[in-house]
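hi support,

uploading two proteins for the ticket. first:
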Amino acid sequence: MQLIMKKNIMMLLTAVLALSACYKEAALDREVHDPAFTIEDSSEPGKHAIYELYKNFGIATFYEYNDVDYKWNMNSYSNYNATRIDPAFLEQAMNYLEDVFFGLYDNSFKKSYMPFKIYLASELTSESSDETTDVYATSVRSGMIVGRLREDALPKTPEEYKAAAGELSASLWANYLVQNERLSIPDEFYDVSKDYYGVNSLSSAVDLQDYMTEGFLDYDHTNSLNNGTTYLFLPKAEMDIYQYVQKITTTSSEEMQAFCKKYDKIRIKYNILVNAVKSATGVDLQAIGDQVAAKYPTE
């Protein structure tokens, strides 16, 4: 009897370990998510804005939190460090995010696709970076961290506002939605440039135009070094999406079409991405680009 019990226990443990080894978290479902917390209303404008986002769209925005809240998930760890914002800056931070992020998307999208949680940071840096880079945003499993929320870092010019809008939208689509499998980009997009993803060049006179003929908008600035000679990497797939969203959501239709006429592969990838996003979510990325370009004219 004792031997049978031991055998059964061992079989059960083996089964549990096997299930654990092949376990993968299911894709996030925005509409059934039920956070185990409440957000109270307040007469303070910044806190009231947070309450309205939560009440209307289920987006929980945090300015006070612990590292464990954003650094660890069941099977991942964030290598970003977030410095909490000054609570006195909360109203200004929320107004800024409405201008360059939340206000660019309709209510239906915000209810269904915006992150469950958004963490506010005065500074957001990566532990793995050789140089400290003050980034605009990054994603975690159930949300995003938004950085640069302090007086000296907020945009002052139309160019800076456009840059911020592009970075936040790019992080939303490429880092949060695609990475968390809430949006699937057709293989045809990647196929155009797949032979060049992550490729580096040791040439001392690399011409960026060469990259564009292969369907890239830019090289990978996070992995490329310039120290007398040029050592450049082309983007990998996720960064490719990031750069396309960043470009489209800050450029007018007229400018974008004129640019695409110069490069067949960029035109192909542009059309695939815009159509795929619109079909899946109802969002027209190019319409956002028109909105941002009109709101922050740079000429």
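and the second one:
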Amino acid sequence: MRYRNIILSLFISITFSQTQVVIVEEMFMDAPYVGEFTTTNTKYASDNLFKQEMQIEVGSFLVRMAMGGNKKAGSIIDGNSKLRTVYDINEEEYAEENFQSIIENDGKPKLKMMDNAFGGGSSRNSNEDENEDEDSSENNESDDNNEVNRTINNNFEKIGEFLAKKVTTEMMGRSGRVVIEEWFTMDTSLFSYALDVESKLVSSYGGSAQTTPRSFSEPMLRSAGHEFESVEGRLVKYKMTQKDDDDGFKMSWEIKQAKKEPFNQSDFILSKDYKKVDELN
């Protein structure tokens, strides 16, 4: 198995040499009293370089004003210069920290891009999925979802550029009715490359790369003590709807684009118009 992983990693490296991968994720959330949020997260990965740009658009005028307006920010990890850069697209400002300073801070960057509260579930590190699965299977004290109906469609659907298998999970409990629709693909080479680039760069300063959860329904089912059939592959789309006495909660996430293209160095360099600051506001 170890040699198989080494060969696969080598194959991916050769296949993606002198190229870059671009992945665009979009999340939509509509919550009672808060309104609509749309988050777009664009990732660029190439040899020893990783960049992501995040844009948050808020539908509610009052909430948008409370947040200080819609947000646009990004970060670049450069393994060649050993620098991590964060930048504010609206203000055209950037700040930098070197890898050594992050290592001395226990692998935790001091500079923040922006809160990732609505960013496609990318708030856990690459080891947390397995740990969560183990913990949730042991923690069944609160069985809030008493009835479960899970359907796996063996036919493939076209989700953007991917062929994906749909899984629908419906749960009934004290919180009302929750329906989670998920689409999984076995075409994972682009995602694997981008994650591999980010993970290696982040680990070089002692950190842990953030990942999208493999599934949203499965941890919920485990925590409720339900047995279920799992589906292989990588999540490319999900929808979650919660129905209760209010209007309910809606959330969706989807890979809008995933492509390999020729390497473009300008994608990893900030404009000279940006002003350097000690940290972003």
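thanks. also noticed: The first strand starts at residue 19 and ends at 31.
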